[in-house]
From TrEMBL:
Interacts with the Sec translocase complex via SecD. Specifically interacts with transmembrane segments of nascent integral membrane proteins during membrane integration. The keyword Transmembrane applies. GO terms for biological process: protein insertion into membrane; protein transport. The chain crosses the membrane at residues 7-24, 377-396, 440-463, 521-541. Belongs to the OXA1/ALB3/YidC family. Type 1 subfamily. It is a multi-pass membrane protein. This is Membrane protein insertase YidC. It comes from Acinetobacter silvestris.
Length: 570
Protein backbone atom coordinates (compact mmCIF):
# COMPACT_ATOMS: atom_id res chain seq x y z
CA UNK A 1 0.00 0.00 0.00
CA UNK A 2 2.82 2.41 0.91
CA UNK A 3 4.54 1.62 -2.39
CA UNK A 4 1.34 2.35 -4.31
CA UNK A 5 0.98 5.69 -2.54
CA UNK A 6 4.49 6.69 -3.51
CA UNK A 7 3.88 5.80 -7.13
CA UNK A 8 0.71 7.92 -6.99
CA UNK A 9 2.72 10.91 -5.74
CA UNK A 10 5.31 10.36 -8.45
CA UNK A 11 2.59 10.10 -11.07
CA UNK A 12 0.96 13.31 -9.86
CA UNK A 13 4.26 15.18 -10.06
CA UNK A 14 5.00 13.91 -13.55
CA UNK A 15 1.46 14.80 -14.70
CA UNK A 16 1.96 18.33 -13.36
CA UNK A 17 5.24 18.65 -15.23
CA UNK A 18 3.70 17.21 -18.40
CA UNK A 19 0.74 19.60 -18.31
CA UNK A 20 3.07 22.52 -17.81
CA UNK A 21 5.16 21.49 -20.81
CA UNK A 22 1.99 21.15 -22.91
CA UNK A 23 1.04 24.67 -21.91
CA UNK A 24 4.03 25.95 -23.85
CA UNK A 25 3.08 24.36 -27.13
CA UNK A 26 1.85 26.63 -29.87
CA UNK A 27 -1.79 27.00 -30.69
CA UNK A 28 -1.33 29.12 -33.77
CA UNK A 29 -3.48 28.66 -36.83
CA UNK A 30 -1.80 28.48 -40.23
CA UNK A 31 -3.54 29.94 -43.17
CA UNK A 32 -4.29 27.92 -46.21
CA UNK A 33 -4.31 29.23 -49.75
CA UNK A 34 -7.02 31.44 -51.09
CA UNK A 35 -10.53 30.26 -50.44
CA UNK A 36 -12.99 30.76 -53.26
CA UNK A 37 -15.63 33.35 -52.46
CA UNK A 38 -19.20 32.18 -52.97
CA UNK A 39 -21.40 34.36 -55.10
CA UNK A 40 -23.91 36.66 -53.47
CA UNK A 41 -27.43 35.42 -53.17
CA UNK A 42 -30.30 37.88 -53.13
CA UNK A 43 -33.75 37.01 -51.90
CA UNK A 44 -36.87 38.99 -51.05
CA UNK A 45 -40.10 38.40 -49.19
CA UNK A 46 -43.26 40.47 -49.03
CA UNK A 47 -42.48 42.22 -45.76
CA UNK A 48 -38.79 43.02 -46.03
CA UNK A 49 -35.96 42.50 -48.49
CA UNK A 50 -33.27 40.19 -47.19
CA UNK A 51 -29.88 40.16 -48.84
CA UNK A 52 -27.66 37.14 -48.09
CA UNK A 53 -24.14 37.53 -49.38
CA UNK A 54 -20.60 36.65 -48.43
CA UNK A 55 -19.82 38.85 -45.39
CA UNK A 56 -16.18 39.14 -46.24
CA UNK A 57 -16.56 40.08 -49.88
CA UNK A 58 -17.20 43.74 -49.16
CA UNK A 59 -13.87 45.23 -48.21
CA UNK A 60 -11.68 42.13 -48.01
CA UNK A 61 -9.71 42.33 -51.23
CA UNK A 62 -6.60 44.42 -51.57
CA UNK A 63 -7.19 48.11 -50.96
CA UNK A 64 -6.76 50.41 -53.98
CA UNK A 65 -6.81 53.69 -52.12
CA UNK A 66 -5.16 56.39 -54.15
CA UNK A 67 -2.03 58.13 -52.98
CA UNK A 68 -3.86 61.27 -51.92
CA UNK A 69 -6.19 59.36 -49.62
CA UNK A 70 -3.29 57.39 -48.16
CA UNK A 71 -1.38 60.56 -47.39
CA UNK A 72 -4.32 62.09 -45.57
CA UNK A 73 -5.13 59.42 -43.01
CA UNK A 74 -7.29 60.73 -40.21
CA UNK A 75 -5.36 60.55 -36.92
CA UNK A 76 -7.07 60.46 -33.55
CA UNK A 77 -5.13 60.69 -30.31
CA UNK A 78 -6.73 60.03 -26.93
CA UNK A 79 -5.20 59.28 -23.56
CA UNK A 80 -5.21 55.55 -24.43
CA UNK A 81 -4.26 55.26 -28.07
CA UNK A 82 -3.30 56.72 -31.43
CA UNK A 83 -5.66 55.65 -34.22
CA UNK A 84 -5.43 56.12 -37.98
CA UNK A 85 -8.55 55.99 -40.17
CA UNK A 86 -8.37 55.82 -43.96
CA UNK A 87 -10.96 58.06 -45.69
CA UNK A 88 -10.99 55.47 -48.47
CA UNK A 89 -13.59 53.09 -47.02
CA UNK A 90 -13.42 54.60 -43.54
CA UNK A 91 -11.35 51.67 -42.25
CA UNK A 92 -9.37 51.69 -39.01
CA UNK A 93 -5.86 50.92 -40.24
CA UNK A 94 -3.68 51.56 -37.22
CA UNK A 95 -4.12 51.34 -33.45
CA UNK A 96 -1.27 52.12 -31.06
CA UNK A 97 -1.86 51.40 -27.38
CA UNK A 98 -0.13 54.20 -25.50
CA UNK A 99 -0.28 52.53 -22.07
CA UNK A 100 1.34 49.29 -23.28
CA UNK A 101 4.89 49.06 -24.56
CA UNK A 102 6.01 46.96 -27.49
CA UNK A 103 8.38 44.95 -25.29
CA UNK A 104 9.85 45.15 -21.80
CA UNK A 105 12.86 47.17 -22.94
CA UNK A 106 11.10 49.25 -25.57
CA UNK A 107 9.75 52.78 -25.28
CA UNK A 108 7.53 52.31 -28.34
CA UNK A 109 3.80 51.82 -27.90
CA UNK A 110 2.30 48.43 -28.67
CA UNK A 111 0.76 48.35 -32.14
CA UNK A 112 -2.46 46.38 -32.42
CA UNK A 113 -3.73 47.19 -35.92
CA UNK A 114 -1.58 48.24 -38.85
CA UNK A 115 -1.57 48.15 -42.63
CA UNK A 116 1.87 48.23 -44.20
CA UNK A 117 4.30 46.02 -46.09
CA UNK A 118 4.97 43.81 -43.07
CA UNK A 119 1.50 43.23 -41.65
CA UNK A 120 -2.17 43.71 -42.48
CA UNK A 121 -4.59 43.86 -39.59
CA UNK A 122 -7.51 46.29 -40.03
CA UNK A 123 -11.13 46.85 -39.04
CA UNK A 124 -13.80 47.66 -41.64
CA UNK A 125 -17.43 48.69 -41.77
CA UNK A 126 -19.70 49.68 -44.62
CA UNK A 127 -22.83 48.82 -46.53
CA UNK A 128 -23.38 46.11 -49.10
CA UNK A 129 -26.47 44.78 -50.80
CA UNK A 130 -28.79 46.30 -53.40
CA UNK A 131 -27.69 49.91 -52.88
CA UNK A 132 -24.57 49.21 -50.82
CA UNK A 133 -21.61 51.56 -51.11
CA UNK A 134 -19.09 48.73 -50.61
CA UNK A 135 -20.29 46.13 -53.11
CA UNK A 136 -17.11 46.53 -55.16
CA UNK A 137 -14.09 45.85 -52.91
CA UNK A 138 -11.84 47.57 -55.44
CA UNK A 139 -13.88 50.79 -55.44
CA UNK A 140 -14.45 51.64 -51.80
CA UNK A 141 -16.20 54.97 -51.14
CA UNK A 142 -13.96 57.97 -50.50
CA UNK A 143 -15.40 59.83 -47.53
CA UNK A 144 -15.19 63.58 -47.06
CA UNK A 145 -13.76 64.74 -43.74
CA UNK A 146 -13.82 67.99 -41.80
CA UNK A 147 -10.17 67.65 -40.79
CA UNK A 148 -7.51 64.99 -40.49
CA UNK A 149 -6.19 65.48 -36.93
CA UNK A 150 -8.17 65.02 -33.70
CA UNK A 151 -7.03 64.97 -30.07
CA UNK A 152 -8.39 65.56 -26.59
CA UNK A 153 -8.47 69.28 -27.27
CA UNK A 154 -11.34 68.52 -29.67
CA UNK A 155 -13.26 66.58 -27.00
CA UNK A 156 -16.64 67.83 -25.84
CA UNK A 157 -18.16 67.26 -22.42
CA UNK A 158 -21.38 65.27 -22.57
CA UNK A 159 -23.48 63.56 -19.93
CA UNK A 160 -23.77 59.79 -20.06
CA UNK A 161 -26.82 57.75 -19.12
CA UNK A 162 -25.80 57.94 -15.45
CA UNK A 163 -25.73 61.73 -15.56
CA UNK A 164 -21.94 61.92 -15.31
CA UNK A 165 -19.90 64.12 -17.61
CA UNK A 166 -17.36 62.54 -19.93
CA UNK A 167 -15.01 63.78 -22.63
CA UNK A 168 -16.01 62.65 -26.14
CA UNK A 169 -14.32 63.06 -29.52
CA UNK A 170 -16.57 62.71 -32.60
CA UNK A 171 -15.05 62.06 -36.01
CA UNK A 172 -17.63 62.27 -38.84
CA UNK A 173 -16.98 60.93 -42.34
CA UNK A 174 -19.46 61.80 -45.11
CA UNK A 175 -20.05 60.07 -48.45
CA UNK A 176 -22.59 61.28 -51.03
CA UNK A 177 -23.74 58.98 -53.81
CA UNK A 178 -24.65 60.07 -57.31
CA UNK A 179 -28.34 59.41 -56.64
CA UNK A 180 -28.46 61.88 -53.72
CA UNK A 181 -28.04 59.45 -50.79
CA UNK A 182 -25.81 60.59 -47.96
CA UNK A 183 -23.95 58.10 -45.74
CA UNK A 184 -22.42 59.49 -42.53
CA UNK A 185 -20.03 57.29 -40.60
CA UNK A 186 -19.22 58.76 -37.16
CA UNK A 187 -16.51 57.40 -34.87
CA UNK A 188 -16.96 58.32 -31.22
CA UNK A 189 -14.05 58.09 -28.76
CA UNK A 190 -14.38 58.50 -25.00
CA UNK A 191 -11.58 59.62 -22.74
CA UNK A 192 -10.30 56.75 -20.59
CA UNK A 193 -12.19 54.08 -22.57
CA UNK A 194 -11.11 51.64 -25.29
CA UNK A 195 -14.50 50.89 -26.94
CA UNK A 196 -15.18 52.95 -30.07
CA UNK A 197 -18.76 53.60 -31.13
CA UNK A 198 -19.21 53.58 -34.92
CA UNK A 199 -22.55 55.03 -35.99
CA UNK A 200 -23.81 54.81 -39.58
CA UNK A 201 -26.56 57.14 -40.76
CA UNK A 202 -28.21 56.86 -44.15
CA UNK A 203 -30.12 59.93 -45.36
CA UNK A 204 -32.15 59.08 -48.45
CA UNK A 205 -32.92 62.19 -50.51
CA UNK A 206 -33.47 60.17 -53.65
CA UNK A 207 -36.94 59.32 -55.02
CA UNK A 208 -36.42 55.57 -54.57
CA UNK A 209 -36.20 53.10 -51.69
CA UNK A 210 -32.64 52.56 -50.44
CA UNK A 211 -31.68 49.00 -49.39
CA UNK A 212 -28.49 47.72 -47.84
CA UNK A 213 -26.86 45.76 -45.04
CA UNK A 214 -24.30 46.96 -42.54
CA UNK A 215 -21.21 44.77 -42.21
CA UNK A 216 -18.27 44.92 -39.83
CA UNK A 217 -15.12 42.93 -40.54
CA UNK A 218 -11.81 42.30 -38.86
CA UNK A 219 -9.20 41.42 -41.47
CA UNK A 220 -5.86 39.90 -40.54
CA UNK A 221 -3.04 38.17 -42.36
CA UNK A 222 -1.06 35.18 -41.04
CA UNK A 223 1.78 37.13 -39.45
CA UNK A 224 2.95 36.09 -36.01
CA UNK A 225 1.56 37.46 -32.78
CA UNK A 226 3.67 40.52 -31.85
CA UNK A 227 2.63 40.07 -28.22
CA UNK A 228 3.95 36.54 -27.75
CA UNK A 229 6.63 35.99 -25.13
CA UNK A 230 10.11 34.70 -25.84
CA UNK A 231 11.17 32.47 -22.96
CA UNK A 232 14.70 31.39 -23.79
CA UNK A 233 14.57 28.01 -25.53
CA UNK A 234 10.78 28.10 -25.30
CA UNK A 235 8.41 30.38 -27.18
CA UNK A 236 5.19 30.81 -25.31
CA UNK A 237 2.37 29.53 -27.52
CA UNK A 238 -0.84 31.27 -26.61
CA UNK A 239 -3.90 31.32 -28.84
CA UNK A 240 -3.87 33.43 -32.00
CA UNK A 241 -7.05 33.17 -34.03
CA UNK A 242 -10.71 33.98 -34.28
CA UNK A 243 -13.37 33.85 -31.60
CA UNK A 244 -17.09 34.50 -31.39
CA UNK A 245 -19.88 34.42 -28.87
CA UNK A 246 -23.65 34.67 -28.44
CA UNK A 247 -25.88 34.87 -25.36
CA UNK A 248 -26.37 31.08 -25.68
CA UNK A 249 -22.80 30.11 -26.64
CA UNK A 250 -20.65 32.53 -24.71
CA UNK A 251 -17.16 31.79 -26.03
CA UNK A 252 -15.96 29.79 -29.00
CA UNK A 253 -12.59 29.62 -30.74
CA UNK A 254 -12.14 29.40 -34.49
CA UNK A 255 -8.61 28.83 -35.75
CA UNK A 256 -7.49 30.68 -38.85
CA UNK A 257 -7.07 27.33 -40.62
CA UNK A 258 -10.79 26.69 -40.09
CA UNK A 259 -12.10 30.04 -41.33
CA UNK A 260 -13.18 28.36 -44.57
CA UNK A 261 -13.42 24.65 -43.71
CA UNK A 262 -15.51 25.17 -40.58
CA UNK A 263 -16.91 28.50 -41.66
CA UNK A 264 -18.76 30.49 -39.03
CA UNK A 265 -22.38 31.28 -39.88
CA UNK A 266 -24.49 32.09 -36.84
CA UNK A 267 -27.45 34.41 -36.36
CA UNK A 268 -27.68 36.03 -32.96
CA UNK A 269 -28.78 39.16 -31.16
CA UNK A 270 -26.18 40.28 -28.65
CA UNK A 271 -23.32 38.37 -30.27
CA UNK A 272 -19.75 39.38 -31.08
CA UNK A 273 -16.77 38.39 -33.23
CA UNK A 274 -13.08 38.86 -32.46
CA UNK A 275 -9.48 38.08 -33.28
CA UNK A 276 -7.63 37.05 -30.15
CA UNK A 277 -3.92 37.19 -29.44
CA UNK A 278 -1.68 37.14 -26.38
CA UNK A 279 -2.95 39.74 -23.87
CA UNK A 280 -4.96 41.70 -26.51
CA UNK A 281 -8.15 41.39 -28.55
CA UNK A 282 -9.98 43.18 -31.37
CA UNK A 283 -13.73 42.72 -31.53
CA UNK A 284 -16.88 43.94 -33.28
CA UNK A 285 -20.07 44.06 -31.23
CA UNK A 286 -23.23 44.76 -33.29
CA UNK A 287 -25.37 47.51 -31.72
CA UNK A 288 -28.74 49.07 -32.44
CA UNK A 289 -30.84 49.83 -35.51
CA UNK A 290 -32.92 52.97 -34.94
CA UNK A 291 -32.53 52.46 -31.19
CA UNK A 292 -33.41 48.75 -31.16
CA UNK A 293 -30.92 45.81 -30.97
CA UNK A 294 -30.75 43.88 -34.23
CA UNK A 295 -30.02 40.23 -34.99
CA UNK A 296 -26.71 39.96 -36.84
CA UNK A 297 -25.18 37.10 -38.80
CA UNK A 298 -21.71 36.21 -37.49
CA UNK A 299 -19.49 34.89 -40.28
CA UNK A 300 -15.92 34.04 -41.24
CA UNK A 301 -14.10 33.57 -44.52
CA UNK A 302 -10.77 33.63 -46.34
CA UNK A 303 -9.61 36.03 -49.01
CA UNK A 304 -6.29 34.93 -50.46
CA UNK A 305 -4.02 34.94 -47.40
CA UNK A 306 -6.30 37.13 -45.31
CA UNK A 307 -8.46 35.85 -42.47
CA UNK A 308 -11.81 37.63 -42.16
CA UNK A 309 -14.32 37.43 -39.34
CA UNK A 310 -17.26 39.76 -39.02
CA UNK A 311 -20.98 40.38 -38.82
CA UNK A 312 -23.74 41.38 -41.22
CA UNK A 313 -26.99 43.08 -40.28
CA UNK A 314 -30.41 42.14 -41.68
CA UNK A 315 -31.65 44.03 -44.73
CA UNK A 316 -32.22 47.72 -44.06
CA UNK A 317 -34.92 49.66 -45.91
CA UNK A 318 -34.78 53.46 -46.02
CA UNK A 319 -37.80 54.89 -47.90
CA UNK A 320 -37.35 58.01 -50.01
CA UNK A 321 -37.19 61.19 -47.95
CA UNK A 322 -36.32 59.41 -44.70
CA UNK A 323 -33.22 58.44 -42.77
CA UNK A 324 -32.10 55.66 -40.49
CA UNK A 325 -29.22 55.01 -38.06
CA UNK A 326 -27.42 51.79 -37.18
CA UNK A 327 -24.32 51.35 -35.05
CA UNK A 328 -21.73 48.92 -33.74
CA UNK A 329 -18.92 48.99 -31.19
CA UNK A 330 -15.30 48.24 -31.98
CA UNK A 331 -12.81 47.25 -29.28
CA UNK A 332 -9.08 46.94 -29.89
CA UNK A 333 -6.97 46.80 -26.78
CA UNK A 334 -5.92 44.84 -23.71
CA UNK A 335 -8.00 41.93 -22.46
CA UNK A 336 -9.24 43.70 -19.33
CA UNK A 337 -12.01 41.49 -17.98
CA UNK A 338 -13.88 44.23 -16.12
CA UNK A 339 -14.24 46.22 -19.36
CA UNK A 340 -14.95 43.35 -21.74
CA UNK A 341 -17.75 41.82 -19.67
CA UNK A 342 -19.83 45.00 -20.02
CA UNK A 343 -19.56 45.02 -23.83
CA UNK A 344 -21.00 41.59 -24.64
CA UNK A 345 -21.78 38.29 -22.96
CA UNK A 346 -18.71 36.05 -23.04
CA UNK A 347 -16.29 38.60 -24.46
CA UNK A 348 -14.39 38.64 -21.15
CA UNK A 349 -13.71 34.92 -21.67
CA UNK A 350 -11.17 35.84 -24.34
CA UNK A 351 -8.99 35.97 -21.23
CA UNK A 352 -8.79 32.22 -21.63
CA UNK A 353 -7.92 30.41 -18.39
CA UNK A 354 -8.65 27.02 -19.93
CA UNK A 355 -10.54 24.22 -18.22
CA UNK A 356 -9.39 25.42 -14.79
CA UNK A 357 -11.03 28.82 -15.25
CA UNK A 358 -13.15 28.68 -12.03
CA UNK A 359 -9.99 28.29 -9.91
CA UNK A 360 -8.03 30.74 -12.06
CA UNK A 361 -10.80 33.33 -11.73
CA UNK A 362 -10.69 33.08 -7.94
CA UNK A 363 -6.89 33.34 -7.94
CA UNK A 364 -7.01 36.43 -10.15
CA UNK A 365 -9.60 38.04 -7.88
CA UNK A 366 -7.32 37.31 -4.92
CA UNK A 367 -4.34 38.81 -6.73
CA UNK A 368 -6.34 41.93 -7.59
CA UNK A 369 -7.47 42.28 -3.96
CA UNK A 370 -3.92 42.18 -2.62
CA UNK A 371 -2.62 44.37 -5.45
CA UNK A 372 -5.11 47.06 -4.48
CA UNK A 373 -3.53 46.98 -1.01
CA UNK A 374 0.22 46.62 -1.69
CA UNK A 375 0.43 47.91 -5.28
CA UNK A 376 2.92 45.23 -6.38
CA UNK A 377 2.05 41.99 -8.19
CA UNK A 378 5.03 40.10 -6.75
CA UNK A 379 4.03 40.74 -3.15
CA UNK A 380 0.44 40.03 -4.19
CA UNK A 381 1.51 36.53 -5.33
CA UNK A 382 3.26 35.97 -1.99
CA UNK A 383 0.20 37.12 0.00
CA UNK A 384 -2.11 35.02 -2.18
CA UNK A 385 0.07 31.94 -1.61
CA UNK A 386 -0.07 32.49 2.15
CA UNK A 387 -3.86 32.84 1.97
CA UNK A 388 -4.20 29.62 -0.07
CA UNK A 389 -1.98 27.77 2.40
CA UNK A 390 -4.06 29.03 5.33
CA UNK A 391 -7.28 27.88 3.66
CA UNK A 392 -5.80 24.44 2.99
CA UNK A 393 -4.01 24.28 6.37
CA UNK A 394 -6.43 21.86 8.14
CA UNK A 395 -6.46 19.40 5.24
CA UNK A 396 -2.71 19.56 4.63
CA UNK A 397 -1.97 19.29 8.37
CA UNK A 398 -3.89 16.03 8.51
CA UNK A 399 -1.87 14.70 5.58
CA UNK A 400 1.47 15.87 6.97
CA UNK A 401 0.64 14.37 10.37
CA UNK A 402 0.00 11.01 8.75
CA UNK A 403 3.28 11.32 6.83
CA UNK A 404 5.09 12.25 10.05
CA UNK A 405 3.72 9.12 11.71
CA UNK A 406 4.97 7.05 8.78
CA UNK A 407 8.37 8.65 9.26
CA UNK A 408 8.33 7.69 12.94
CA UNK A 409 7.31 4.07 12.28
CA UNK A 410 9.82 3.70 9.44
CA UNK A 411 12.30 1.77 11.68
CA UNK A 412 9.52 -0.64 12.69
CA UNK A 413 8.63 -1.11 9.03
CA UNK A 414 12.24 -1.93 8.21
CA UNK A 415 12.38 -4.43 11.10
CA UNK A 416 9.22 -6.15 9.86
CA UNK A 417 10.59 -6.33 6.35
CA UNK A 418 13.76 -8.02 7.58
CA UNK A 419 11.82 -10.36 9.87
CA UNK A 420 9.33 -11.64 7.31
CA UNK A 421 11.76 -11.58 4.40
CA UNK A 422 10.14 -12.99 1.24
CA UNK A 423 6.80 -13.68 2.86
CA UNK A 424 5.06 -10.74 1.23
CA UNK A 425 1.57 -11.74 2.34
CA UNK A 426 2.59 -11.86 6.01
CA UNK A 427 4.49 -8.61 5.64
CA UNK A 428 1.44 -6.89 4.10
CA UNK A 429 -0.81 -8.17 6.91
CA UNK A 430 1.56 -6.94 9.61
CA UNK A 431 2.03 -3.61 7.81
CA UNK A 432 -1.76 -3.02 7.61
CA UNK A 433 -2.09 -3.92 11.28
CA UNK A 434 0.65 -1.39 12.11
CA UNK A 435 -1.10 1.30 10.06
CA UNK A 436 -4.34 0.62 11.88
CA UNK A 437 -2.68 0.60 15.28
CA UNK A 438 -0.82 3.85 14.64
CA UNK A 439 -3.78 5.44 12.80
CA UNK A 440 -1.73 6.04 9.66
CA UNK A 441 -3.15 6.51 6.16
CA UNK A 442 -0.37 6.07 3.58
CA UNK A 443 -2.53 7.60 0.83
CA UNK A 444 -2.86 10.90 2.69
CA UNK A 445 0.59 11.87 1.48
CA UNK A 446 -0.83 12.31 -2.02
CA UNK A 447 -3.39 14.91 -0.98
CA UNK A 448 -1.16 18.01 -0.63
CA UNK A 449 0.27 17.57 -4.13
CA UNK A 450 -3.04 16.60 -5.70
CA UNK A 451 -4.59 19.75 -4.22
CA UNK A 452 -1.70 21.94 -5.36
CA UNK A 453 -1.76 20.65 -8.95
CA UNK A 454 -4.91 22.50 -10.13
CA UNK A 455 -3.94 25.63 -8.20
CA UNK A 456 -0.46 25.58 -9.70
CA UNK A 457 -1.76 25.10 -13.25
CA UNK A 458 -4.51 27.70 -12.81
CA UNK A 459 -2.01 30.26 -11.55
CA UNK A 460 0.15 29.53 -14.58
CA UNK A 461 -2.68 30.60 -16.88
CA UNK A 462 -3.46 33.63 -14.71
CA UNK A 463 0.13 34.80 -15.15
CA UNK A 464 0.09 34.05 -18.87
CA UNK A 465 -3.34 35.43 -19.78
CA UNK A 466 -3.82 38.43 -17.47
CA UNK A 467 -2.58 41.57 -19.21
CA UNK A 468 -2.40 43.26 -15.80
CA UNK A 469 0.68 41.13 -15.05
CA UNK A 470 2.35 41.77 -18.43
CA UNK A 471 5.82 43.20 -17.73
CA UNK A 472 4.87 43.57 -14.05
CA UNK A 473 8.00 43.98 -11.87
CA UNK A 474 8.56 42.59 -8.39
CA UNK A 475 11.93 43.75 -7.05
CA UNK A 476 15.68 43.64 -7.71
CA UNK A 477 16.40 41.55 -10.83
CA UNK A 478 12.79 40.34 -11.28
CA UNK A 479 11.35 43.04 -13.53
CA UNK A 480 8.78 40.88 -15.34
CA UNK A 481 6.80 38.30 -13.37
CA UNK A 482 5.27 36.91 -16.58
CA UNK A 483 8.73 36.08 -17.99
CA UNK A 484 11.42 33.67 -16.83
CA UNK A 485 13.99 34.67 -14.21
CA UNK A 486 16.89 36.03 -16.31
CA UNK A 487 19.45 34.84 -13.74
CA UNK A 488 17.72 31.50 -12.89
CA UNK A 489 17.99 32.34 -9.19
CA UNK A 490 14.35 31.67 -8.29
CA UNK A 491 14.29 28.20 -9.94
CA UNK A 492 17.43 27.22 -8.00
CA UNK A 493 15.87 28.41 -4.74
CA UNK A 494 12.73 26.47 -5.65
CA UNK A 495 14.80 23.31 -6.19
CA UNK A 496 16.48 23.78 -2.80
CA UNK A 497 13.16 24.22 -0.99
CA UNK A 498 11.79 21.12 -2.74
CA UNK A 499 14.85 19.11 -1.63
CA UNK A 500 14.43 20.26 1.99
CA UNK A 501 10.72 19.47 1.91
CA UNK A 502 11.36 15.96 0.60
CA UNK A 503 13.91 15.34 3.36
CA UNK A 504 11.11 15.87 5.87
CA UNK A 505 8.99 13.13 4.28
CA UNK A 506 9.32 9.42 5.07
CA UNK A 507 11.94 7.99 2.74
CA UNK A 508 11.01 5.10 0.42
CA UNK A 509 12.15 1.66 1.50
CA UNK A 510 12.75 0.66 -2.11
CA UNK A 511 16.22 1.87 -3.27
CA UNK A 512 15.01 2.65 -6.80
CA UNK A 513 12.14 4.80 -5.49
CA UNK A 514 14.55 6.58 -3.18
CA UNK A 515 16.79 7.49 -6.13
CA UNK A 516 13.84 8.75 -8.17
CA UNK A 517 12.70 10.94 -5.27
CA UNK A 518 16.19 12.44 -4.97
CA UNK A 519 16.20 13.27 -8.68
CA UNK A 520 12.77 14.97 -8.60
CA UNK A 521 14.02 18.34 -7.20
CA UNK A 522 16.63 18.47 -9.97
CA UNK A 523 14.05 17.65 -12.65
CA UNK A 524 11.60 20.28 -11.43
CA UNK A 525 14.38 22.85 -11.19
CA UNK A 526 15.15 22.28 -14.87
CA UNK A 527 11.45 22.55 -15.74
CA UNK A 528 11.16 25.83 -13.87
CA UNK A 529 14.17 27.49 -15.47
CA UNK A 530 12.07 28.78 -18.36
CA UNK A 531 8.73 29.29 -16.65
CA UNK A 532 7.32 32.65 -15.45
CA UNK A 533 9.10 34.08 -12.44
CA UNK A 534 5.74 34.69 -10.75
CA UNK A 535 4.90 30.99 -10.93
CA UNK A 536 8.27 29.99 -9.49
CA UNK A 537 7.81 32.59 -6.75
CA UNK A 538 4.49 31.00 -5.84
CA UNK A 539 6.12 27.54 -5.64
CA UNK A 540 8.98 28.85 -3.43
CA UNK A 541 6.60 30.46 -0.95
CA UNK A 542 4.37 27.39 -0.99
CA UNK A 543 7.36 25.08 -0.31
CA UNK A 544 8.72 27.37 2.41
CA UNK A 545 5.43 27.40 4.31
CA UNK A 546 5.14 23.64 3.85
CA UNK A 547 8.65 23.18 5.32
CA UNK A 548 7.69 25.18 8.42
CA UNK A 549 4.37 23.37 8.77
CA UNK A 550 5.87 19.93 8.22
CA UNK A 551 8.82 20.58 10.58
CA UNK A 552 6.44 21.61 13.36
CA UNK A 553 4.20 18.58 12.82
CA UNK A 554 7.16 16.18 12.63
CA UNK A 555 8.52 17.42 15.95
CA UNK A 556 5.07 17.23 17.52
CA UNK A 557 4.54 13.63 16.35
CA UNK A 558 8.04 12.59 17.43
CA UNK A 559 7.50 14.04 20.91
CA UNK A 560 4.14 12.28 21.19
CA UNK A 561 5.75 9.00 20.08
CA UNK A 562 8.61 9.38 22.57
CA UNK A 563 6.16 10.10 25.36
CA UNK A 564 4.14 7.04 24.39
CA UNK A 565 7.24 4.83 24.37
CA UNK A 566 8.28 6.11 27.82
CA UNK A 567 4.79 5.47 29.19
CA UNK A 568 4.76 1.96 27.70
CA UNK A 569 8.19 1.21 29.20
CA UNK A 570 6.97 2.22 32.68
Amino acid sequence: MQQWARFAILGAMFVTAYLLILAWQKDYGHSSNAAQQPAAVVSQNTSQAHIASDPAKAGVAAQTANTVAQQKLITVKTDLYNISINPKGGDIERVELLNHDQSKNSSQSFVMLENDATRKYIAQTGFKGVNGTDNDPNARPLYEVEKTVYNLADAKSVKNKDGQEEKVISVPLVYKTNDNVEVIKTFTFKQGAYPISVNHQVINRSPQLWQGQLYGNIVRDNSEDPGKSDQGIFTLGTYLGGAWGTPDEHYNKLKFTNFSDEKLHKEAQGGWVAIVQHYFVSAWIPGDFNGQPFKATLESNKDNNLNVIGFTSPAINVPAGTSMAIDATFYSGPKVQSELKDLAVGLNQTVDYGWLWPIAKLLFMGLQFFHNIVGNWGWSIILLTILVKLILWPLSSKSYRSMAKMRVIAPEMQRMKEEFGEDRMRFSQEMMALYKREQVNPLSGCLPLLIQMPIFLALYWVLMESVELRHAPWMLWIQDLSAMDPWFILPLIMGLTMFIQQSLNPQPADPMQAKVFKIMPIMFTVFMLFFPAGLVLYWIVNNSITILQQSFINKSVEKARLKKDVTSAD
